[in-house]
Amino acid sequence: MLVGSSPCKLETVNTSVNVRGKWLRSLLALVLGVAATMIGVSGSYAATNGNVSIGAGDAGKGAQYFTLHLSPGGSFTGYVIVGNVSPVPATLDIYSVNAATGTTSGIVYLNQNSPERTVANWVVPAVSSVYLQPNKSTKVYFTVKVPLNATPGDHLAGVVVQNAKPVTTTSHNFGVVTVDRGAVGVLIVVPGPAAFKLAITGAAIVPTSATGTASVQIDLNDVGNLYANPTLSVTLSGPNGYHQTVPVLPCIPAKEYCGQLGTILPDNPIPFDFPWPAALQPGQYTISITGSSQQYPSQVVHFVTRFDLKTALVQTIPNAPRPPVVSHLIIPAWLLLLVVVLVFLLLLTAYFLGYELPRRRRKRETGIENDPKKRAAAKERLSRL
Prior knowledge:
- The protein is an alpha+beta fold.
């Protein structure tokens, strides 16, 4: 199963500057090299996964996936750009799959042999495989045909590239098989009555599968026909007057967990583990949950249930009132380029003041000393002063 968001295409930055001075050229090359790498990452619109890459071809400038508004019976032809970024020639498989909601929310693309192909059957690549030399890419066309009985709303599939021969590494009689995959989403929006409808059908206090710490497992589903990114608020009331709500408002996403989920796709139920920041003692609890979405403010759902906790659970993060989240800082490419230009100008100024200007002064003084006429003229100017 391939987990991820929309793929991006890495850009290459080519910079050419003519500079005198060996040390300055070397330093400038280092600065520009680092800048090119940083700009390539921050301003990217395609993805490289292992030895394969894929981009959203003619989806539009800067688009990371295809968004197609098609009526039942409608069709579309486009292309993705697939690449072999390995050091050897390779055969890459091309196929389409259904998208689904991951257990932690967000979009996942199903495996090649998955029997769930409702939307995948609408998306047909022109070829099933391509053979590419190292570091080469090519266009792969695909056609979308929406069936006449298609229902209104959002339908998401993915065009996937995968290395045809998985890489097997063996160490101490232990083998690991690596399959490199990348996907471009194809979102097909069929017109008609549509809405996002979050449904909460159950909740329980459980240890998380990974760490065994406290969490509230919430059974979620989108019973509508549009996707969204919902937000949850959970309140636990329990033994000895225990009462706590997560998140506590106002909530700062960069510093704490604010109950924000990834994408929830229509008709994809998941058991979502909502991390709990405190230890919980055995006893009877009332679980109150509110679900909402900034995309559809009118869609608010409330759910209340009781749960009898038999075993004590430790808090998610010891000595922390709320579970933290990782904040990723994204710096715009133009700002990085501006920094590079400023650094270059500073280096150029330092080079001129520290090397070029003294060199010219020494050359001028040496010329005066070696020329009797210039030496006499200089003495005369000094005598007048």
